[in-house]
Request: fold
Amino acid sequence: MKLPMLTADDKIAEIRRLYFTTTRQTIQADLAKALDLLKSMAGEEERERATVYMEGLAQMRADWARSTPSTRHSKRKTRKP
Reply:
């Protein structure tokens, strides 16, 4: 099976698709795939075109991580004086 070589436009299109389709459950895998695509780009100009989507994915991951209660904090009991 022959794998197709992706052009810079194809890579940016895939990162864009990941940005618009990611969910709370898939953000880690989607961000990892987007980073792999970004690393495979040849030049800085190509990477700059993907910046807005990469920043958006990173922000979604941060927002969702912050809004998910940590199991460490949920098990802690508060003491009353």
Notes: The radius of gyration is 18 Å.
